[in-house]
Design goal:
CATH superfamily: Histidine kinase-like ATPase, C-terminal domain
Shape: globular
Strand content: 15-25%
Helix content: 25-40%
Number of domains: 1
CATH architecture: 2-Layer Sandwich
Length: 171
Amino acid sequence: MDADTDVVARCREPSNKTVATMRAAALAALSRYGLSRDSCDDAEIMAGELLTNAIRHGAGPVAVLAWRCTLDCAVVEVHDASPIQPVLPAPLAPAEVDPLAETGRGLPLVTALAKQRCGVAGRPEGGKSVWFALLLGRHTPSRLALAALVKSRIQCRGISTPLTSPRASRP
């Protein structure tokens, strides 16, 4: 595993203006995995929600990672330096989301769109990774198996959110 190839974008001083650039970098990486159009649409929403949360409630730097896992899924992680881990709520159906609410709907929406294939994991060097997985094939791995795989990859990656890499965009 080449840990740095998972990183598709990072930002030292993230702001709301960087969300679109970082989300686009994640989608570009995911496009190489053959996701369906619906899955790409879901990924765009989920990546945007997690990036926005990392910027509003986390601490910089922020990075977005995308990788194909051995369980026939594509995984997107959003890292930030805050040790405070959000609690992923029960999913909300789109009809249950208040379109006028300015906060409080992002994580339930991620949980719903990811079909509960999402989670939070601490990073050995500090901070956290909030992640979701999208199916690439017909095999549907359990949430626990995915969580264990993602946590293992985070632990093995052994990198902090690096800020110097020619591959990474710095919005």
